[in-house]
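Newbie here. two chains, one complex. Structure please?
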Amino acid sequence: MAEFSTSVRENGDISIINLKGFLDAHTAPTLENNFTQLINDSKFKIVVNFEDLAYISSAGLGVFMAYIESIRDNKGDIKLTNMSDKVFNIFDLLGFPLLYEIYKNEDEALKKFSGS
Amino acid sequence: MSVRKKNRAAQLKVKSRTENLSEIRDFVSGNARAADIPEVTVENIILAVDEACTNIIKHAYNLSPEGEIIIKIDYDEEKFMVTIIDYGKSFEPDRVPLPDLQKYYREHRVGGLGMYLMKSLMDDVEYRSVPGKYNQVLLSKNIRSG
């Protein structure tokens, strides 16, 4: 079975979700639960760190699309960081860089939140 | 007469459950690596097959876990071909438009991305359905080197 796990950290009023392993149609609900929980807790400033993510399919990409609107409606955002070239290429192929801010590292994303 | 150094076929049969996607990916990856295909191409084929099977699980079998999915791999020096067969609801690929991502985002629609990825990652994607009998999707990638 595909191995996938997430962990959530707080940095001030920003929540950071770390992704690890394989994000596919089977494991996407784990990440959906993270977003649902953060939204329930009114935490709308979210950074997702992809450093340990080995694989993503469109079911995983769909999770970001499912939550971005309600998060932005609440003056928050989902910013994406530390993607491998392999994972970035899939995001790029689907035009995600037009819709999401993608940064090389977590600090850049955190700074963007504090700057706005 | 041409002599083919590489020519192999393999088959995997699994139930229509998302938990089987990792086994499907391992099956494709093992065969693609044995075919000596560049790593980037291997990864593209793995993702395309995952997307095809995810669509079958979600749409052809409507998440019912007892459907059957058969994945056949066939390759020679020129082409790596994956045929995926299911016995669920037939599918009309022409009815799935290419996604307008901005529109998807506004409408929270996430299906259709998989189809777009399959077409982008493979050289050819062909559907064949015999309604009430079976559906087949053939994914092929040219692998001739040089």
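Moderator note: The helical segments of chain A are 28-40, 58-73, 85-93, 106-115. Chain A has four helices and five strands. Thread marked as resolved.
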